[in-house]
Write a structure and sequence with these properties.
Chain A: Belongs to the bacterial solute-binding protein 1 family. The structure holds 2 protein chains of 2 kinds. Chain A contains 18 helices and 14 strands. Chain A is an alpha/beta fold. Chain B has 2 domains: 44 residues; 233 residues, MetI-like (MetI-like fold, Orthogonal Bundle), CATH 1.10.3720. Chain B has 13 helices and 2 strands.
Chain lengths: 429, 313
Amino acid sequence: MKQVKKAAMYSLVGLTFLGLVGCGTANNSNSSQGGSTSSGKPVTIVVASWSGTNVTNGIIDQQLADFNKTHPGIHAVYRPISGNYETILKTEFVAGDAPDIITLNNGGQAPTFESEGAVIPLNSYIKQSNYSLSDFFSGALNMFVANGQVYGIPRDQSPLVLYYNPVMFKQAGISGPPKTWAELYADAKKLTNPAKKIYGIVQTPQEPRWAQFVYQAGGSVMNHNMTQMTLNTPAALKGFSFFVNLYRSGVAAQPQDVGATWGGQALGMGRAAMTFEGAWAIPYLQDTYPNTSFAIATLPKGPVNNVSLDFPTAWAITKDCSHPQQAWEVIQYLTGAGQAQWVEQGGLVTVRKSLIDMPYYKEHPIYENILKQLPNAVPWNFPNGFDQYVNTTLSNETLLAVDGKESPAQALQKLQSEGESILQNGGSQ
Amino acid sequence: MAAVQADSQSRSGGRFLREKGMQKWRRQETVTAYLFSLPTIILLLMFSLGPAVYAFFLSGVSWNLLDQMHWIGLHNYAAIFRMPLFWTAVKNSFIFAAVVMPVQTIIAMIFAVIMNQHLPARPLFRLAFFFPSISSSAVTSLMFMWIFNKLGLLNGFLNWFGISGPDWIGDPRFALSAIMILNIWSTSGYFMVVFLAGLQSIPQNFYEAAAIDGASAFQRFLRITVPLLRPSTFFIVVMGMIGTLQMFDQSFIISGGTGGPLNSTMTMALLIYEEIFSYGNVGYGAAITVFLFVVVLLLTLLTNRWLGKPIEY
């Protein structure tokens, strides 16, 4: 009797443990699937990116499906990462379980992953397969090259362009989009009607929306090698002051002033006559605000030029990838034949010079001025260690200047010195 | 006589045997209990206590998640205490806790007392007040972003009275207040239920006796309800304090993770997240975690001295 009881108890305790172990094994089998090497089975390559729109997700899915059909030895799967992309990627690197291929982003993300060795140089693979890099727009490609090492093959890009509402322009008696800073200001003033909560320009006050004014005035944010801050020049102050003055004089407003979260939305809501965005706003405006008409122009010319900011992304292979050879084949496909598909699906703007003559662009003239702006654009980039600077410092100082709590010169001075101290500390703290 | 002695001896011998049996049985019982709770203990050690101890370790390293970590001792603490953003976060967290915790406690108590009366449609009201606390804070935050929108519901309502409402979320002077309102709205309902449970345990005859003695309804509330609710109040104050000092999700969603505008919604918990996952300063984040732990521990001990005494009738 006693023994029966004992046996019953131990089996019960055993059962509870089984529950725990069960969880463990379930996870194990999941993770080992990723890098299975058993002969005969195709090698799985996990391709990760931030979860974009349905359009972009669909394009990558379709590209990988096409790739898998023609490459029986490789099984490529797309894993969109929703939420904070870089954060989730970093935790996966800590766990040693990062995807095989990731998308490198602009705004200082690529140099972080490159200089910490999270992504591997592709030079040997490029050489071995005679892969030509000359067709890529140099701005998009150079952002993913460091010390002669190529870390990423460009995926897509978009420069900032001027979005405007032609109906509003017509009503205000303005014949066309502004061509110079002076026209931009004059038009914005004409189009502003604070009583109706309509503004000439609605734009989030942030660095990737004022840096182009600095470039247009002949200045820059950092030097070409990103080893020095260059915001203390008169040209930089000229560009930044022009941007700040748009808000200070009331012809530009922040999106939340009109109940929007970004400039594209404000334009769609009919509360902005102009805004500066990239190609990503096209599908958004067409889907969300089909009744608002919009057109695209190249940026108005500043004292020196009409340079824009460019936002390229690239495919890269991670250090955790156990089959870099197969991963490289996937990247070759995605950036080669896949590029043409990308264009045909109406996703983002091509990174290959040869593709700007594709029929799709002829049939969709809305892209015309975006392609025209392309050769005249500087990629938006920062070196490793600038995460907090890009995320917080830049927007805070911009906001202080736009709110009039600091003069443009004071704000730039702070940005200059904070950037310098990060560079002096060797990038990361 | 001898027979009696023998009898008592045998009886005590029996008791001795029985006690030995009891002890053995108790020990077995304890072992069984531990065996049954072992899975939970393992989970707790792995996912709660382990990471907590690890946070203490991390507060002494320099690491950005991607590079090699190395030990730098107490340097992180020195660095965060010199960082203005840290003190902004501490200030915001304390202001938030100092406003939200008392307000939500008082509102919860008042609503609990009202809901304890025999009002029509009482279950419906109870449901309505409890509902916010069981809905996802991500969803309610998004909902309140629309309410607090410059052209949103709240400002539309204020417009009726000729008040041009501020930009609640975009203006650094109002952003934290907006989150306070959201937080009070979403937590008061839960604490109301705790107070309701506390109210059930107050004997009805106290009120009857007080009524006979001529105490007004307000006096009865102040002299009977409030003091006798102290165990519930203690629980609510401690939970409210911990919850408000650790507020993260609502700030994160409303500010888009940046603690903006101008760091006005940067709380300690949000700064911990930002330092570790966005700025690549794991050591700073861990050091702030330890700081927050010490602060919460001290405040809880203080509250325990103040409110944790048993009720004396």
